[in-house]
Amino acid sequence: MPVTNRLSGVFAGVLLFGCTASASDFDVVPLGVQGGLNEANLSSYLVSVAAKNQFLALDAGTLSSGIDSAFARNAFAEVAWQSGSPYSAKGQLLRDHIKGYAISHAHVDHIAGLAINATDDAKKPLYGFSDTLNKLRDHLFNWQLWPNFADQGAEFALAKYRYQPLSAGTPVNLDELGMRLTAYPLSHSGSSLSAAFLLQHNNAALLYLGDTGPDSIEKGQQLYAVWQQVAPLVKQNQLKALFIESSYPNSRPDDKLYGHLTPRYVLQELTVLASLVNPEHPDIALKGLKVVITHIKPSYLKSENSQTIIQRELTRANNLGVEFVFAQQGELLHF
Ligand SMILES: [Zn+2]
Ligand SMILES: [Zn+2]
């Protein structure tokens, strides 16, 4: 065989091996990554089994602007559009490729996009704890703040969205999506309930935490209980990514956290997880784990770019060797 052919054979082998080694389990398209102020970029993450292009939206703070950003960044290049559909590609994405919404809690920054796009959305399920779904039923989809686009509550129910309450720790099969969804309660400033969503496909898992305070401030064990659930998955190398909020920089006083985390508390909580994964060597237990930072709250202060500060604080304190990911709106991620 001529040298060039042999070489290209080697390269092909390397490429092939590279592809196999980097095969991902989940595709994630963040439609919104911030935790306030910017109504065009609030918490929402589309998750699909890799290359399936059938998404569950984790929270729905921003939909339309996020889908625009995702198109601009070519995140939906592999989606097969229906030329016979009366809807634009954007319309098809919203209506046909987002198969449902899992809402961590009913705060406006997690549901604004859902409310505004409900008029033109297709029929689909809304997953969440009863507490969250009841808030949507009683305070949003009630013909006072907004028409009743859901299937319960104030007459007349338009029944576009189907409330699907989740019980803590009980998995639900999302057959169409090829994923299993399990919710766990989180404490988001005392009386306010939030949720962690664990998505599983075969032997791969992805954990998304809605807004949450640290256990030490919330005076509870909710995060600890979540860490206990996912520690075995980390141990078996099944947890592909962990989405956790860091709303404020470390300078934020504890009594002004309102149920949120700062870089210091993110590391404190990850250290708890690490010690459950490997009690002897917690320092190496999470090495290489992809930790996606969500819900950074922008600031209008001239002196403060919270994104830069939070990024720096997390990076400097990263004694666990995790891989922090600062996701951009519309950027396709593979895990
Ligand atoms: Zn909140
Ligand atoms: Zn929030």
Structural topology:
Blueprint: H1 3-22, E1 26-32, E2 44-49, E3 55-58, H2 64-72, H3 89-97, E4 98-102, H4 112-117, E5 124-128, H5 130-139, E6 161-165, E7 172-174, E8 179-187, E9 193-201, E10 204-209, H6 215-218, H7 222-235, E11 239-245, H8 263-277, H9 282-285, E12 290-294, H10 306-316, E13 323-325, E14 333-334
Helix pairs in contact: 7-8, 8-10
Residues 105, 107, 188, 211 line the site of one zinc ion.
Task: Give a verbal description of the structure.
By secondary structure, the chain is α/β, with parallel strands linked by helices. It has a single domain, classed as 4-Layer Sandwich (Metallo-beta-lactamase, Chain A). 30% of the residues lie in helices and 23% in strands. It is built from ten helices and 14 strands. The chain has a seven-stranded mixed beta sheet with strand order 6-5-4-3-2-1-14. Strands 7-8-9-10-11-12-13 form a seven-stranded mixed beta sheet, with helices on one face. The N terminus is likely disordered. One zinc ion (ZN) binds next to loops.
Separate helix tally = 10
CATH architecture: 4-Layer Sandwich
Structural class, by secondary structure, is alpha/beta
CATH homologous superfamily identity: Ribonuclease Z/Hydroxyacylglutathione hydrolase-like
What fraction of residues sit in β-strands? 15-25%
CATH class: Alpha Beta
CATH topology: Metallo-beta-lactamase, Chain A
Radius of gyration using CA atoms only: 21 Å
Bound molecules: zinc ion
The dominant shape is globular
Q: Terminal Cα separation, in Å? A: 39 Å
User: Domains counted in the coordinates: how many?
Assistant: 1
Low-confidence regions: 1-21
The topology string of helices and strands comes to: HEEEHHEHEHEEEEEHHEHHEHEE
Helix content: 25-40%
What's the overall average pLDDT, rounded? 94
